[in-house]
């Protein structure tokens, strides 16, 4: 039971990390600098709902769904999309590693291993 409880919480945390990363709306940015050349009215700004691999941009008279490959690299760096992708993927990987380490943890060992697992869960959730 002692090993199962942290593992169950880790699996729940991994589920919520993945659900938030793969659904649009985790980050919302209000900008009109990215779509100046579309020919649409961007005077009220554009609201972008971003998932891990794609985004939805909603303006006054348009709605665009596109992947990050459609951005040029300078636009991605300007609003921090690359940093966002790296942080989310790193969090998911750390959560997976923590779950595996939780199942492999033996009670006879030192408590340092368990502290390392807990710290990695905390880092993954940041």
Automatic annotation (TrEMBL):
Regions crossing the membrane: 7-29, 49-69, 81-103
Keywords from the named record: Membrane, Transmembrane, Transmembrane helix
Name of the protein described by the UniProt record: Uncharacterized protein
Species of the source: Mytilus galloprovincialis
């Amino acid at each position: 039971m002692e090993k199962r409880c942290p593992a169950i919480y880790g699996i729940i945390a991994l589920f919520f990390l993945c659900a938030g990363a793969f659904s649009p709306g985790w980050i919302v940015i209000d900008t009109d600098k990215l779509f100046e050349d579309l020919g649409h009215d961007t005077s009220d700004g554009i609201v972008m709902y971003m998932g891990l691999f794609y985004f939805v941009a909603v303006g006054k008279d348009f709605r665009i769904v596109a992947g990050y490959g459609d951005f040029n690299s300078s636009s991605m760096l300007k609003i921090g999309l690359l940093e966002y992708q790296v942080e989310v993927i790193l969090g998911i990987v750390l959560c997976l590693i923590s779950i595996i380490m939780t199942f492999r943890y033996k009670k006879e060992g030192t408590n340092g291993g368990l502290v390392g697992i807990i710290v990695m869960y905390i880092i993954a959730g940041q």
